[in-house]
Structure prediction request, 971 residues.
Amino acid sequence: MRIVVLVKPVPDTTGQERLGPDLRVDRVGVPAVVNANDEYALEAALKLVEAAGEGEVTLLAMAPAGAPETLRKALAMGAHRAVLVTDPALGGSDTLTTVRVLAAALRRLEYDLVLAGADTSDGGGGVVAAGIAVTLGLPYLSYAAKIEPSADRVVVHRLSAVGYDQLEAGLPALVVATQALGEPRYPSLKGIMAARSKEILSWSLADLELGDAPVGGAVTTTAVVETHAPPARAATRVVRGPAGEAAAEVVAFLAERRLI
Amino acid sequence: MSGFEGIFGHVPGYLLVFPLFWGSVVFFALVMARHLRIFAAVRAAGPSPFADVPRRVGGLVRYTLLQTKMFKDPRAGIMHFTIFWGFVLLTIGTANVVTGGAIQAVIQVPAGGVLWTAVSAMQNTVAVLVLLAVGYAFVRRLVTRPRRLAFTRGALIILVLIGGVVASELLAQAFEAARYGSIAGAFVADALAVPLANLAPDVLYAVFTVLWWAHIAIVAIFLGYLPFSKHLHIATAFFNVYFRKLAPRGELPAMDLEAEDATFGLRTLQDLGWKDLLDGFTCTECGRCTAACPANMTGKPLNPREMIMGLRHMAVDAESGLDLIPNSPILRAQAGLDDATPSPTLLATAIVDEAIPFDAVWDCVTCGACVEACPVLIEHVDKIVGFRRNLVLEDSRFPSELTGAFRNMETAGNPWGQPRATRTDWTKGLNFEVPTVAELAAAGRLAEVEVLYWVGCAAAFDERNRKVARAFARCLNAAGVSFAILGQEESCTGDPARRMGNEYVYQILATGNIETLNRYGMAERTIVTACPHCFNSIANEYGQLGGTFQIVHHSVYLQGLLASGRLRTADADADGNPARSVTFHDSCYMARYNNVVAAPRDVLGSMAGIELREMERNGKGSFCCGAGGGRMWMEETRGTRINAERTRQALATGAEVVATNCPFCMTMMKDGLAEAESNAGGVVSAADIAELLADSLAPAIPAGRQLPVLQ
Prediction:
């Protein structure tokens, strides 16, 4: 079982200022962490390989040159190696470039499954995985609550509003993970130590076969025009007291605002 | 008369004493040697017998000869003291018997035997006292049955043996006196002989013979039974006390995370040090640790005594299959034996789930009440943290809610995951500036800093504790203390991570803080903090990582400011402070870990109109709020809530204010008071000593009339 997991180093969400003066995400000044949704995909991949008793989990990221530090944290969880596509020309890339670059990188890798998180906490587009599946012609199985691979097929339970849909596809395939797959593990000290010596391949654009169309920040199709901070949340009101009285108070509060 | 034919000539078969007694000594030694083979199988690291000898001997005197810890339970203390010293003194008589009267032969030479007469009189007196003490011990075991005691057959066997050995000796002497006439000095035996005088000499002789031999037989049985019994402490306690932990109680064992092929933390018996095993073999099951344990008291599975005894049982089990032939290759070859080492399987069994349940490992608040209570100085907390280290660092096995705290500490530098940028938000609303060290350094004014105020995460981010930080800053400002903070450059000290077993995150945070403090030359300044956990880490633990700092807890610092006159409190009359009653809740990490008991009380005592009402468990005997050892970030699902129990104790004093000197205690007591049914309407509130002081300060002295600033 060879699995590639798409991971993205994103700015730490506990930081406050995440946009640089150019209104783009500040990837230098703010410490980076592994995108939380990608950790669910990684956890699922590790569990699949452990269950199969054989196989390899490869991380694939497109990120600035400082990313190995963050990727080591994902390697510490148990992934076997990482591939980092990094190139100065990729700064300011849009979703389309991200899709094309990652798809080109995947063409150079061997895999049975590609796992991705539902979206990232910085861009939040949530379309990269689907774009890659289309580009590479892979079956696309989204919102997985359960992943059951067999020799040449994979069955996925896709979360829906009323339960789940059972999807089946041939391998290789691309699966989008959800939190329902289980909490990401906390790396052990041995995992952290082992991650120090794990392989992180660094590929530049020159290493990928991207064809003739230009990629990167220079040809971005989207631009950030303006940003607004969300309005400050009103103070939380805590209702205390015996259950009956408290419930009545909550109902009155909601009714007053015509919410019920 | 001379020689033992003379002294013991009337004892039939006296010579049999030698094989019987000395044979039992050899058996005792062989069983002990088998115990030692387990010691040889664990880590060799441990305290050196030759370092700190005066301190170690001093401890021996205090804890074994004077038994100071035993007297915290005065009646049990007196009983134990009597039996201990009685045993020591009565040993003279037994030693005399088993050496053929050598002792008597020497002692009765000077001054016509007066000295031996005195010894006999003393022995008679002591025998009566020991019998009274044993009688009281029986009453405790059989009638009053205090909760902390384990009511085992072993305990009763030991009492029967102690009582029997003393009674048989005294009664044998009484029949001896009745048969042969008064014994010099043996006044009790003589008195007991009076009603026996009418019995026939043959009867007296027969009973004497039976009792005399009963005494020797019981001594031999006692020696043979001792190494298998809970009473083994009489052989091991001296060593355990001598080799006690001399490092500050709040300093957990250092850990090398780069060590290759090492087991991280404590997993099996082999990972323990020999001193840890000695702890197990010294436990006497008195239950003081468990009775003091807040987790146990609130119905949680943690039982410190069972953990220590569990280690001992594991060790003894690992011995099974070992014979008594010493571990000498030559001897073993002669005897045709080969199982010279303890059971490899049992030595490799994980301690967690065997000697202590997994849940119990996480119930511990590291309050140290067990360690403080133990009369033979067993270290429970360091072991529990050792188990946690192994579970976290090797298995990633811990309560799931800790994942967030660990990640937050590692990425955001605080357990709550609050943005660093909001670290100085607490200063808003103060009518003076609180500069950061970085600002002062940039302005070339770093030399002005008298103290660095280490705020700590709780005071920086928690709304209630921010008020404490502001109150403390007001006190510093009122005293004219020039202080600064690290601001965004401050991180969690790592205390919660370390005590939750995550040494990796602890060392990241601690080395970062040490680097920051050293960068600003803070090793030469005084650091002051209102957080006992920050205090303990910086004062007692940063040294392991090369950070040496002068740090003072705010209760001590405020006490100093008041004593030197830099801070003055208002008179009740002038300011109209209403009289109020206050109970002080000691934080474990100040009182028990760092001996700071008087300072917060002095601060409270400086304020007019405060009546201090102590809780039953106070000072070094304080009862944890429930938030230590990383429990602040864990759900408390087992048993009842510790803070509810402590709140109940606080409310029982009838005080109007529960004063604290720790941000975690503040949170726990505040929550406890809010939820206590007997505190409906929130009449009783929690307040930090700095808040009470800030509200009691005298109006500022006009400029020009201020007291000189003390350095």
Notes: The mean pLDDT of chain B is 92. The CA atoms of residues 296 and 442 of chain B lie 52 Å apart. Chain B is about 55% helix and 5% strand.
